[in-house]
Automatic annotation (TrEMBL):
InterPro entries: ASHA1/2-like_C, START-like_dom_sf. Pfam families: AHSA1. Signal peptide: none annotated. Belongs to the AHA1 family. This is Activator of Hsp90 ATPase homologue 1/2-like C-terminal domain-containing protein. SUPFAM superfamilies: Bet v1-like (SSF55961). Residues 17-135 form the Activator of Hsp90 ATPase homologue 1/2-like C-terminal domain.
Amino acid sequence: MIMTGIDYTFSYDVPQSPGEVYDAVTDVRGWWSQRITGDTDRLGEFVYEVPGIHRTHARVVELTPSRRVVWRVLENWFASSPDVDEWAGSQIAFDIEPVEGGTRLTFTHVGLTPELECFEGCSVGWSRHALQSLRMLITTGTGMPITPMDETALQSA
């Protein structure tokens, strides 16, 4: 994993093809959360929500098969800072490029910077979801998305 720049970003290589990586990235229910409303594999809007904890309303604004996926965050809400929408207007990009022996995936949350109140917690979350779970989905076919059981544990914590 390589961490670079001001925006939260990392890259990793996998032995799968760019097409396989793209398919995994667009299967958001397979690596982020099973509680996604809307399509994540076509242009349009979707909502991720852990009731009472976190809600993100995003628009898929770019889908270039085997190359790139970009979401624009329209609204975001965290229970920990309910009056602040730090993610609004930010972009989440998945850049996919062939490398020797497989594919490099670069994840960047443009606008998620150390100056934001949520940076530490969001960094941990993206590391769990886009680094660990997505990587598992790509390499094994099974990710670790948030399940309704996980949500119950989060709500009682």
